[in-house]
Amino acid sequence: MIYSFKGFIPVVHESSFVHPLAAVIGNVIIGKNCYIGPGAAIRGDWGEIILEDGVNVQENCTVHMFPGKSITLKESAHVGHGAVIHGANLGRNCLIGMNSVIMDDALIGDECIVGAMAFVKANTVFEKRQLIVGNPAKAIKEVSDEMMAWKTKGTQLYQQLPTDCHETMREVEPLRAIPKNRPEQEAFYNTLNEFLKNDA
C-alpha cells in the first residue's frame, strides 16, 4: 500500500518491489532493486526517508523518525525481519540483525553488522566494519572479509528478489492437497558458520 501524505507522494523505482501488505507513506524515496517485505512500515509522514539502491527492508520492520528529520539507508543496507530503525542512518552494505532497534540520530557505519536483538542507543556512532551486539549495543570486533563476503552474498539475493517477485509472485487460491510433482527448492545460501566452514 502506497499512501500520499500532506502532498508528499512516495517515489519508488520500477525495478523495486513493495509487497502489497507493506505500507509506504509520504516523503519516501526508494531507489533501484529494493525489496520491501510484507508487514513493513516505512512512514515518511513526519520526515524524509531515503532508501538508496539495493536496500532491503524485510517483513515487519518499521522505519520512522521524529518530526523534521531526514534519514538515509545507504546502498545495499540490509534490514532483517522485525527490526526498527527510528531516526537513524545506515551506512553502505551494512546488516541490521533481526528484531534489532536502532534509535534516533544513531549512525551505523559502512559494512557494519548489527547482531540480532541488539539495542543501539540514540546518538551512538559506530565506525565502519564493526560487529555490534548487545543491549546496549557495543562493538566487539572488526568485521572480517569473510563475514562481509557472506553478508554481501545474502544481500545480492534480496537484490534479485524484486525481479523474481515481479515475474512470478501472484495471488492464488491454495491447493487442497500436495501435488506429486511439487518442485524442490535449492539450498543456495548457507548460515555464516556453514559459509565459513565451506569456504575454508
TrEMBL record:
<dbReference type="GO" id="GO:0016740">
    <property type="term" value="F:transferase activity"/>
</dbReference>
<keyword id="KW-0808">Transferase</keyword>
<dbReference type="InterPro" id="IPR050484">
    <property type="entry name" value="Transf_Hexapept/Carb_Anhydrase"/>
</dbReference>
<dbReference type="InterPro" id="IPR001451">
    <property type="entry name" value="Hexapep"/>
</dbReference>
<dbReference type="Pfam" id="PF00132">
    <property type="entry name" value="Hexapep"/>
</dbReference>
<dbReference type="InterPro" id="IPR011004">
    <property type="entry name" value="Trimer_LpxA-like_sf"/>
</dbReference>
<protein>
    <submittedName>
        <fullName>Transferase hexapeptide repeat family protein</fullName>
    </submittedName>
</protein>
